[in-house]
Write a structure and sequence with these properties.
single chain, alpha/beta, six-stranded parallel sheet, 16 strands, 24% strand, binds NADPH dihydro-nicotinamide-adenine-dinucleotide phosphate, binds zinc ion
Length: 352
């Protein structure tokens, strides 16, 4: 079968591989529609996770089941499914003990395009299908399903990690597709004032659509100064980081109030150190909490997110700005994601 792969750091291309084999709990799925992720860009072009050779890319998609293992109960060939970007090993002690995202070792719940071949392939393997796949309900579009794979769940995780309380003032740094879904997550959890940080007009329009109250353009001057002006020097209750380089942590620590939370869902592709400014962090005594994480995955999570779409709490389709047709277009979609032209939020590729 054919797949579009990371050949090495900075290098991508089409490769041939054997069709994956199904284990007793697993499924083989063929893609219906897929999307590239900014994480693919960090992994391939910045070498964020180190050297990887000939690994098929892609971890966001909706597909059709083509084969299931003998012990799979709830899925059968022909079923339309949402593929969560994160597909943990649920049958492990690590999953019971701590976070399924890190069941055996750090980040190993992120399998596609990280530790095994991803969804930019004619066929791909899904471990523990009953625990990791979710049926796509007829009321939910393919497009929304693809955005749920990673963008919605990750943005919402930013809001979960931030532990948003009713009436909080929240800054979302970065209003790409992940930050935009963080805005929706924050709103659903009852935030009061929501301030988004970005610059591209297409993203600013989308941020307003999704419920931001104010926008700060990081190109108009230091973000910390702009936020302090807007909040009369008080700072904010919660900060979610969904964009920027490691130095963005300095801004986040500066603008969050004592007792506040900095929730990081950004994936840093460069630099060995993420800096924490000592005085702004109260020399270690300000109760400014820093948390960061990989989005949760699996079936229950995805079924909950599907309900939010089905019952009109979130409209993820607004994220899609570019629609491409044909499997071979995954290559173009990755380049769109790399170059981030002005009007791009998220591309989708229909494998027809
Ligand atoms: P985008 O690149 O589409 O958006 C990034 C946003 O950050 C844009 O709004 C951009 O502004 C803004 N930005 C860039 N530089 C700065 C800066 N210096 N100061 C303030 N804002 C800045 O990214 P995505 O939304 O696709 O993804 C966001 C992050 O989430 C990525 O790092 C991605 O890898 C990560 N991710 C993490 C996951 C997880 O499980 N934790 C899962 C999926 C993704 P502008 O308007 O100018 O473009
Ligand atoms: Zn991703």
């Amino acid at each position: 079968m054919k797949g579009f792969a990371m050949l090495g750091i900075g290098e991508v291309g089409w490769i041939e591989k054997d069709r994956p084999k199904v284990g007793i709990y697993d499924a083989i799925v063929k893609p219906i529609a897929v999307a590239p992720c900014t994480s693919d860009i960090h992994t391939v072009f910045e070498g964020a996770l180190g050297e990887k050779k000939n690994i098929i890319l892609g971890h966001e998609g909706v597909g059709e089941v083509v084969e299931v293992g003998s012990d799979v109960k709830d899925f059968k060939p022909g079923d339309r499914v949402v593929i969560p970007a994160i597909t943990p090993d649920w049958r492990t002690m690590g999953s019971q003990r701590c976070l399924p995202q890190h069941a055996n070792e750090m980040l190993d719940g992120w399998k596609f395009s990280n530790i095994k071949d991803g969804v930019f392939a004619e066929f791909f393997h899904v471990n523990d299908a009953d625990m990791n796949l979710a049926h796509l309900p007829k009321e939910v579009s393919i497009e929304a399903g693809v955005m749920l794979s990673d963008m919605v769940t990750t943005g919402f995780h930013g809001a979960e990690l931030a532990d948003i309380r009713l009436g909080d003032t929240v800054v979302v740094i970065g209003i790409g597709p992940v930050g935009l879904m963080a805005i929706v997550g924050v709103k659903l959890r009852g935030a009061g004032r929501i301030i988004g940080i970005g610059s591209r007009p297409a993203l600013i329009d989308a941020a307003k659509f999704y419920g931001v109250n104010e926008i700060v353009n990081y190109k108009d001057g230091p973000v910390d100064e702009q936020i302090m002006d807007l909040t009369k020097n008080k700072g904010v209750d919660r900060v979610i980081i969904a964009g920027g380089s490691p130095d963005i942590m300095k801004t986040a620590i500066k603008i969050v109030k004592p007792g506040g939370v900095v929730s990081n869902i950004n994936y840093y592709g460069e630099g060995d150190i993420i800096p924490i400014p000592r005085l702004d962090w109260g020399s270690g005594m300000a109760h400014k909490k820093i948390v960061g994480g990989l989005t949760p995955g699996g079936r229950d999570r995805m079924e909950r997110l599907l309900k939010l779409v089905q019952y009109n709490r979130v409209d993820p389709e607004r994220l899609i700005t570019h629609k491409l047709h044909g499997f071979e277009k995954v290559e173009d979609s990755l380049m769109l994601m790399k170059n981030k032209q002005k009007d791009l939020i998220k591309p989708i590729v229909y494998v027809d």
